[in-house]
Amino acid sequence: MQDKKILEVKHLSKKFGQTDVLKDIDGTVKSGQVICVIGPSGAGKSTFLRCLNLLEKPTSGEVNFEGTDLTNVDDKHLVNLRERMGMVFQSFNLFPNMTVLENLKLAPVRVKHLSDEEAEKTAMHLLGLVGLKEKAHVYPSSLSGGQQQRVAIARALAMNPEVMLFDEPTSALDPEMVGEVLEVMQKLANEGMTMVVVTHEMGFAKEVADEVWFMADGYILEKGKPEELFDNPQNERAKDFIGKIIQNV
Amino acid sequence: MKKSIKAIIQVIIMITALFTLTAWQASSASAADNSLQRVKQRGELIMVTSPDYPPYEFQVNKGGKSRIVGMDIDVAKKVARDLHVKLVIKSMNFDSLLVAIQTGKADMAIGGINPTATRRQSVDFSKIYYSGGQSFLINSSDVNKYKSVKNLKGATIGAQTGTLQYGLAKKKIPNSTVKGMDKSTDLVLALKTHKIDALGIEKPSAEAYVKNDPSLKMISSGYHLNKNEVGAAIAFKKGSNSLVNAVNKSIDQIKQQHLTDQYLASAGKYMKVNTVNTSMWHYWTYFAKGVEFTILISIVATFFGVLIGVVLALMRFSKQKWIRGLAISYTEFIRGTPLMVQVMFVYFGIGVVVNIPALISGMIAVSLNSGAYVAEIIRGGINSVAKGQTEAAESLGLSKSDMMRFVVLPQAFKNIWPALGNEFISLIKESSIVSIIGVTDLIYQLNIVRADTYRGVIPIFVAMVLYFIMTFALTRLLNHYEGKMKHAG
Ligand SMILES: Nc1ncnc2c1ncn2[C@@H]1O[C@H](COP(=O)(O)OP(=O)(O)O)[C@@H](O)[C@H]1O
Ligand SMILES: [Mg+2]
To answer: Can you tell me where the transmembrane regions are (chain B) (predicted)?
Structure first.
């Protein structure tokens, strides 16, 4: 089980016009693994994550999801595969025109064709998981940032995904709200969810991650267990970067 | 960019082709003369006129009902009676009368039209049924200044655009400045407010004004003119010989029996009836009808404008380049041409191929026009929805149409709604342009009331207040709903 490959990226590259944002990326995510991706701003972390569920179309290379190369499937199948990958954004992106509960029910009803009751049952269960059951019928605008991000996590989970992608889920939050979101993510990891997380929360990475990938200039320059990479980085750029974030803490 | 230019050129070519077809149809119709036969078969004789020219033709309000009366109408009635058909009267701007018969909107145009050589090139004329002669209206206060036409040298002279008087004033009064306007009522007002010194007008008309308004006086033009430049004749589409000949028989009788004297006398009576009660209350049915049509046109145009706008906006998001190009060209073309030209094109241009009534033409033109603007409003509204929203929807596996329906459009609509409201409000104002093709909207009715009452300003004021009430009420209504929507989150 632990060895089952969920995502396998080979020679992935991405150009925006003339600029090479990703250059030859390789990496494997196995079932139940938590991968943390770190690196300086502009390294291409977001672009990498968005290439994993094809929100961004790679210029070349492969993104294999459970054995299917996503770069080679048509739009219809892509939608089917995409619903099995959840994504959580830095800016939450809840739908402001719907209540929390409606946010959670929309995709299960429209995409998975669950009945209204089934979708509602799952949604309430997940809201319980993120500790926001009593907010089911309010609109997102009345929630704090931390609460919105927890709802966004629950919304992604409602599709029962096999892997969750997080793009700096706590960096838009006030410091006092970071904890509640990380707590939910840790709970997910403990339950065996496969996760790829772009984050600068070293504490979280050390505690939860199976592997940390350091990205800079469109390459993954170093991969390793968190304690190895944080305490004894081999790559010069990684050393530099980790030094800086430790200073800032 | 290149593609859109290409598409624009395509549209221009299409329109040119349509025009050519239109022109060809118009000219080829003259090949076989079945003009009389058509009228008889139809059982109706359709005439166009510009009913703001008493005593030739003008509107009266009798028992709350509006009717077009005047010498010309009596002439036309006699013609119809002699042909054993019903007379149908359509009204529009004098400028448009000849175009209307050329494009087959009517069988004949009558309206104190002088059969000049220039006009004969584009239409056929009946015999002259009345010779009125040319004159000038001046202010009573100026009688000493402008004793005769010689004193008008260097003066500012007004005349109805497209009329003989306009051309004559230019040609025959040395150093004069000639100001053209559409309506004789406006010209009279301009004269009374000294924006012009004299008004070139047919003698019977001038006499009618002088009789009804002591502040006006008439002087003779003293022009030496041939009878084509003083007489009034009925205009027909070129090649309508059979119809012209039939009408000429009636005109012969009119002249033999001096029927025009009788017609003028009864027109004069109407004008007296008319001046009895010139209060605006007396004319409220006119204004009510105008408001009704203005609102009707605006509602219809808003409805179809939104429909067309949605289609165009969706076309802009199409994967096919040519569909996008088509939508872009349409929008650019409509926004790059005046509504007035579009209204005339639909009525006169397309009208040659399929005959569309004025009201429908007006609605079509205004809807087509509004559609282009609504498309831009919708596109702007959709683009204003944050990119994160579509990404979140995509990452959840929602289909494109579900994403539009549940996520993008409901949010876009919040931005679209106020802009659509503004569009509706501006339609109420801008649709006034349809009056040029004779649709009885508020502006048209306003001009009728002015011609009818010989009061230049008060009707304008009434119309202004009515427009304001309509737009203000609507603004309030829209604000109310906008507020409600905000509460919904
Ligand atoms: N849609 C885009 N078009 C052009 N350039 C982009 C686009 N998205 C990202 N980039 C560029 O790619 C680089 C990497 O961006 P990103 O993946 O967001 O980095 P990170 O998340 O590591 O900060 C940046 O230089 C950014 O300007
Ligand atoms: Mg980023």
So the answer is: 295-318, 339-360, 456-478
**Residue A222: left if φ>0, alpha if ψ -120 to 50, beta else—which one?**
beta
B340 and B401 inside one domain: yes
Asked which of A128-132, B42-46, B252-256, B263-267 is least confident by mean pLDDT, the reply is: B263-267
Q: What domains are defined for chain A? A: 5-18+34-42+83-247 (3.40.50.300)
In this structure, the answer to whether residues B257 and B330 fall within a common structural domain is: no
Please say if the pLDDT value at position B231 is more than 80. Answer: yes
Question: Best substitution site from A16, A166, A241 to test ligand 1's pocket, by max atoms within 8 Å of Cβ?
Answer: A16
User: Residues B184-202: what's their mean pLDDT?
Assistant: 86
CB atoms within 10 A of CB B26: 18
Q: Inter-chain contact B389–A93, Cβ cutoff 8 Å?
A: yes
Say if residues B373 and B309 touch (Cβ distance below 8 Å).
yes
Q: How far is the CA of B63 from the centre of ligand 2 (A)?
A: 78
- Neighbour tally for B451: CB within 10 Å: 26
The pTM of this model reads 0.70
Instruction: Work out the burial of residue B434: count CB atoms within 10 Å of its CB; fewer than 13 is exposed, 13-18 middle, 19 or more buried.
Output: buried
**Residue written as token pair 């051309």:** B167
Select the more confidently predicted residue: B376 or A80. B376
Whether residue B399 and residue A53 make contact (CB cut-off 8 A), yes or no, is no
Question: Among A50, A34, A118, which Cα is nearest to A89's?
Answer: A50
Distance A162 CA to ligand 1 centre (A): 26
Distance to chain A for B186, nearest Cα, Å: 54
Q: Residue B489: what pLDDT?
A: 46
The pLDDT score that the predictor gives to residue B277 is 63
Question: What residue's CA is closest to ligand 1, atom 18?
Answer: A46
User: CB under 6 Å to ligand 1: residues?
Assistant: A 16, 21, 39, 41-47
Provide the domain limits for residue B180. 134-220
Q: Let me know whether B182 and B240 are in one domain.
A: no
Q: Are residues B367 and B479 in the same domain?
A: yes
Would you mind telling me the total number of residues written for chain A in this entry?
Answer: 249
Same domain, B122 and B206: no
Nearest residue (by CA) to ligand 1, atom 8, is: A47
In a domain, B26, yes or no: no
- Shared domain check, B151 and B109: no
**Which residue blocks in B127-224 are alpha helix, DSSP H?**
164-172, 184-192, 203-212
- What CATH code is carried by the domain that includes residue B291? 1.10.3720.10
Locate A202 and state its tokens: 């070293």
Phi/psi at B121 (5° precision): -70, -30
Quote the CA–CA distance of B316 and B321 in Å, as a whole number.
Answer: 9
Same domain, yes or no, for B179 and B297?
no
Residues B379, B261, single domain; the answer is no
Q: Which residues of B touch A91 (CB under 8 A)?
A: 388
ipTM above 0.85, yes or no: yes
Which of A51, A52, A80, A97 would best serve as a mutation to test chain B binding (most B beta carbons within 10 A)? A97
Q: How many domains does chain B have?
A: 3
Q: What mean pLDDT do residues A44-61 have?
A: 94
In this structure, of A79-83, A86-90, B84-88, the range with the lowest mean pLDDT score is A79-83
Nearest CA in chain A to B486: A97
A159 to B410: CB separation less than 8 angstroms, yes or no: no
CATH of the domain at B243: 3.40.190.10
Position B30 confidence tier, pLDDT thresholds 50, 70, 90: very low
Is B27 within the bounds of a domain?
no
